[in-house]
Amino acid sequence: MTNNFPSFPLSRPRRLRQSAALRRMVRETTLSPADFIYPLFVQHGQDVRQEISSMPGQYRWSIDRLADEVREIAELSIPAVLLFGIPAQKDPVGLENFATDGIVQQAIREIKTAVPEMVVVTDVCLCEYTDHGHCGLLDEMGNVLNDETLEILGKTAVSHAQAGADIVAPSGMMDGMIAAIREALDSAGYPGLPVMSYAVKYASAFYGPFRDAADGAPKFGDRKTHQMDPGNAREALREAAIDVAEGADFLMVKPGLPYLDVIQRLSQTYPELPLAAYNVSGEYSMVKAAAAAGWLDEQATVLEALLGFKRAGADLIITYHAKDAARWLTAVS
Ligand SMILES: [Zn+2]
Q1: What is the pLDDT of residues 166-214, one digit of tens each?
Q2: Burial of 141: CB neighbours in 10 Å, binned 0-12, 13-18, 19+
Q3: Could you tell me if 153 and 177 are in contact, meaning their C-beta atoms sit under 8 angstroms apart?
Q4: How big is the CA angle at 220 (ends 218 and 224), to the nearest 5 degrees?
Q5: What is the distance in A from the centroid of ligand 1 to the CA of 127?
Q6: What is the per-residue pLDDT across 48-66, written as a single tens digit (0 to 9) for each?
Q7: How much of the chain exceeds pLDDT 70, in percent?
Q8: Which of 26, 99, 207, 277 has the most neighbouring CB atoms within 10 Å?
Q9: Which residues neighbour 232 within 8 Å (Cβ) at sequence distance 6 or greater?
Q10: How far apart are CA 185 and CA 52, in angstroms?
């Protein structure tokens, strides 16, 4: 970086801000619908399109309503969806997680039939499927068991692969989860299936509305023994390093806006790997609530926030705003 600019009055940065066309010419970062991954919640039943009360504009879908929704997403040039399933029944292990006819497995098949080019990413964790709502198996004291959980994650990833998933995305922050999933996929005949690691996932208050959406709140305790402490950034590099060594194909930081510094550190440390940022439910709902109250311009706020992710170094943004943002971007360009 050069730092030897002449001073005022020779230097006048405002010269490059004189018109919209000029500002556009010198813009360093841009957004495109190709940057987005849109999360979808799927549940059992028929003709279900149930709005999530804490996330206005987001829905839970039954399989029979999914194809039309995914066609609409594809028409907006959004390349990928991220699936979360709400099972029919929950149990201590979360058996539906790796069932051939599980809700996510059905959804994958439905989407790949309706829109084969849509990239289907699947969340791989236990918390939506277990009756206790934790991200792993528990011992009799209620502690999350790490190594015993890895086998379930491997089975789940293979089951998603068999149904036709394009990318699996383990989100439980178990130690060794990437290696366990890689090994399970490879030995089941899926060496080419990429793993997107939620490498750096913080124990965050911003997940609140998601727990309504996916019905996945822990019945007791919290997730602080596996998710990261919000005060830590150096540890994020360690988490990412371990996942890279275990074979992760993508890295992810979650949540997004309060952790842009972490996104930047990861993008600079691992420029070779695509980096995703998860613009989580709480970030979404704050904007929606403020916009509904007339306190913020929703379109301008959302596009600015999403641009911030790109500027910080994210290559991909998982966001509930994806459909709206894609429409707005198409309208302005
Ligand atoms: Zn989980």
Answers
A1: 999 999 999 999 999 999 999 999 999 999 999 999 999 999 998 877 7
A2: exposed
A3: yes
A4: 70
A5: 4
A6: 999 999 999 999 999 999 9
A7: 99
A8: 277
A9: none
A10: 33
Q: How close is the Cα of 128 to the center of ligand 1, in Å?
A: 7
Please check whether residue 280 is in contact with residue 319, taking contact to mean a CB–CB distance below 8 angstroms. Answer: no
Q: Supply φ then ψ for residue 37, to 5 degrees.
A: -125, 125
201 has catalytic annotation: yes
Provide the pLDDT for residue 265.
98
112 counts as catalytic: no
Percent over 90 (pLDDT), the chain: 92
Contact between 127 and 134 under an 8 Å Cβ cutoff? The reply is yes
Query: Closest by alpha carbon to 86, among 210, 185, 195?
Result: 210
Give distance in angstroms: CA of 328 to centre of ligand 1. Answer: 32
Paired tokens of 19: 């018109």
Burial of residue 19, with CB atoms counted within 10 A of its CB: 0-12 exposed, 13-18 middle, 19 or more buried: exposed
Asked if 84 and 123 count as a contact pair (C-beta separation under 8 A), the reply is yes
Q: Give per-residue pLDDT as tens, 123-164.
A: 999 999 999 999 999 999 999 999 999 999 999 999 999 999
Picking from 129, 175, 131, the residue whose alpha carbon sits closest to that of residue 150 is: 175
The SS3 assignment for 78 reads coil
Q: How far is the CA of 209 from the centre of ligand 1 (A)?
A: 15
Looking at the whole model, is its pTM more than 0.85? yes
pLDDT at 331: 86
Q: How far is the CA of 123 from the centre of ligand 1 (A)?
A: 9
Which value, in Å, is the radius of gyration of the alpha carbons in the chain?
21
333: pLDDT strictly greater than 80: no
* Contact present, 42 and 61 (Cβ < 8 Å): yes
The catalytic residue among 90, 112, 254, 323 is: 254
CA dihedral 45, 46, 49, 52 (to 10 degrees): -10
Q: Which of 201, 288, 310, 323 is catalytic?
A: 201
